[in-house]
């Protein structure tokens, strides 16, 4: 098993390096000159050249990449072209906000999704099962940015219960919760649908196995059978939870932009429209690293729970 | 493919008959199952309606989708002459929704088709050839898995800039690695089955094996997987233009319409909801259809 763990850890390194190449390449995918775009219109060619040299844009690409990677490894993501602030600071603040949103929406999706999935599996073929299936399809089909707008229309415009956008200006938990409520629900819809489906099919797989029949035949209480099913379905459920949490963190761009939630998605959106390449790179690199490490953690945790996985 | 090899052509003639016979009954079963699945039929009917209305938009649309009117801005649905109301520039919503569907469907479907073709080719090559080819292709694909799909689409589109072509490129890059993984694992699985070994022992060439034995058993699962991705692709395509990264104004596109109408929710709450409803209905119809297809074809996953 430890061989597997070691190999899995080593495999993450080329993936991360590959991701860093893609992130680095993004600057050069961009049409136009990133420096010229942010310089004042009256600046001379010499001034533009000087700025380019200051940012290292005049050196050969592989050199630029290595220099950039070296800085990144030391936690230096460069400075924002637009605000001149260190990118690390902006990304750190935004990441904190995004993490809170990802956690709250994941929590909502996990709890409701697992409950609905299990309910569905144990009531297979009944009306409840069909309702849950419908709900799950709606969850994975709904454009979540539109759902966010609908929530704003209902709860902010019509009912005037909750604020439509931004994070709380006032301190305290109350205002904070009021601001995060709608984005949480909007962001939870997709994972809710996915988790309901996966939990249902994982639980059904176990329910159809012979040992469950044996447990029932020997007269085990339904509650105890339930525990056995959940325990055996756990590795599969855990995988989907981990993946979904990662998606929440990286996939919140649209919802954050609907609600002006000051997270990484909002920052990314801003960076794209200001053509602020260091910020764009910084956000994507940090999120990708997070995502890779999270997947790694899920894999390893899964092996701990079910050592059979390591054998193939 | 096989005709370039003398041996392959000879084996072709011998193998064609029995192999052609077997899948027929399978597809007949699939067709029978689909015809008796009411949810899938309903989803298919809705989808057909959406696709037809998008294709026939030039003839169905009652108004010019880009002709506005300052007097009639944000009219509610039911206004005479404008069944579904008008947008923030007084343009007819029904006409814009019909025209917008063309754009959204084009931007959502093309990447999945591209990913199906390119991804199948790469995945089957990786799975069938194995060794270094496999490692090279699969490790490259792993790199794209370092990014959550939404982030990857937005990042590439953000770097490339707005426009339909860039949306198609970024979404294709999102979906190719996914198809490659499914294609590779399906190929590896089928390649290990006994009848492939039997065909090889009987002297069948590589091309004949791939064409008659591998593709017939691998393309089904890949197709089902690709069909599950259409709904996500449509949501992402509309999402990119919602962010201002996709189709550019004044073109009608559902995500873009949602974006521009967003400012008007305090004036009219119904009209801004319509483009999103169209995205939702389309993506849901695709999801139900692909669920039905998966069940009918007995593909797991």
What report would you give on this structure?
Chain A is mostly helical. Chain A is built from 13 helices and no strands. Chain A has helices spanning 2-29, 34-38, 45-55, 61-73, 87-122, 127-141, 144-158, 173-207, 210-217, 222-250, 253-259, 264-274, 277-305. In chain A, helix 12 (264-274) packs antiparallel against helix 13. With 301 residues, chain B is mainly alpha-helical. Chain B has a single domain (24-297), classed as Orthogonal Bundle (MetI-like fold), CATH 1.10.3720.10. Chain B has eleven helices and no strands. In chain B, 49% of the residues are buried. Chains A and B meet through helix 1, helix 6, helix 7, helix 10 and helix 11 of A and helix 5, helix 6, helix 9 and helix 11 of B.
Write the layout of secondary structure elements.
The complex is a heterodimer of chains A (312) and B (301).
Chain A: H1 2-29, H2 34-38, H3 45-55, H4 61-73, H5 87-122, H6 127-141, H7 144-158, H8 173-207, H9 210-217, H10 222-250, H11 253-259, H12 264-274, H13 277-305
Chain B: H1 6-35, H2 38-55, H3 57-60, H4 93-129, H5 131-144, H6 149-160, H7 164-191, H8 194-201, H9 206-242, H10 254-261, H11 273-297
List keywords for this structure.
heterodimer, A: 312 residues, mainly alpha, B: 301 residues, MetI-like fold
- Count up the domains of chain B: 1
Q: CATH fold name of chain B, please?
A: MetI-like fold
What general form of chain A does the structure show? flat
Low-confidence stretches of chain B: 1-21
Summarize the structure.
Chain A contains 13 helices and no strands. Chain A has 312 residues and is mostly helical. The model of chain A has no long low-confidence stretch (mean pLDDT 81).
